[in-house]
TrEMBL record:
<protein>
    <submittedName>
        <fullName>Phosphotransferase</fullName>
    </submittedName>
</protein>
<dbReference type="InterPro" id="IPR011009">
    <property type="entry name" value="Kinase-like_dom_sf"/>
</dbReference>
<feature type="domain" description="Aminoglycoside phosphotransferase">
    <location>
        <begin position="38"/>
        <end position="280"/>
    </location>
</feature>
<dbReference type="InterPro" id="IPR002575">
    <property type="entry name" value="Aminoglycoside_PTrfase"/>
</dbReference>
<dbReference type="Pfam" id="PF01636">
    <property type="entry name" value="APH"/>
</dbReference>
<dbReference type="GO" id="GO:0016740">
    <property type="term" value="F:transferase activity"/>
</dbReference>
<keyword id="KW-0808">Transferase</keyword>
<dbReference type="InterPro" id="IPR051678">
    <property type="entry name" value="AGP_Transferase"/>
</dbReference>
Amino acid sequence: MESTTKNRQSTGVLRRLIGRAYGVDQVPVGDDFAHEMTEGWFNVAYRIRLRDGRQVVLKIAPPAGVPVLTREIGMMRVELEVMRLVSELTTVPVPRVDHVDLTHEIVDADLFFMEYVDADNFGRTADAGALGADVVAAGMRELGTLNREINAVRGPHFGPILGAGSPSWREAFSRMIEDTLRDGERVGIDLGWDPDEIRAVVAAHAHTLDEVTEPRLVEVDLWAKNSMIRDGRIVAILDHERAVYGDPLMEAGLTGLDMAAFGDPTDFMAGFGITTLTENERTRRRLYSLYLAVIMIVETKYRGHTDTEVYDFGRRELDGLLAALGRAPVVS
């Protein structure tokens, strides 16, 4: 995907980065050694073939001067910490990190090299119809099981993985919503609603967030497209940068409960270990989907989108979620 946040580099710079990470003897000789992996929305990623033939992945954060959402500041460091937590505290497969460079000496951003996972992207392969229905269903159940194991990791506070957190989930989630609304106000995005109306809806239902009393590691962005599958099994979970300590019901695999375009979550829920939600749990889940819809709208301004597809989708979903939470638009 195209985005102003993608920090692309020349082959000369890539050679210097490879030399620092793997040694000068692994710097490729020719020029056809790096291929951009274009599927992501935020960071730039390259699949790189080292001189000895090994393949690795280089991930580079956005340029220092490019505006990003508040939640995206320092996000690569969050990803590295979550990959460490998941690899050390669970059996969930994540790529091995080979080298981290936070110095900004060669590139004006954080970056790291990790192993290349030789497998198919689960979500994209499924969408292309290249997997049987039984394989897709089993894969979604396995994804739910893996996600549940990640959620078993307990955090020291609610909210950000790194830095100061909050003593309650209500406070942490309200801050997340507020940060995103302010991000939108900063760039003058039209949400289709006065931001204060959205604040009022969140406040009216915020008491349901008080049921969450223990901070758990929540990936937030664990879609099928952020996993790799080989021979019918999930072999890697990718893109951990949006994780927080909070409520497991915030996981992406449950989004289809509120936003039909994200697919039927039944198989994911079976692996995740839930079949039904209480009334308060359904309200919390709607609040999390509302948060996602607001992000989708606001980030179009920060990504420099040249069409309105994502923006229009976010607007429609936001209208539906606010209606489900009791706030219908005023018809003049």
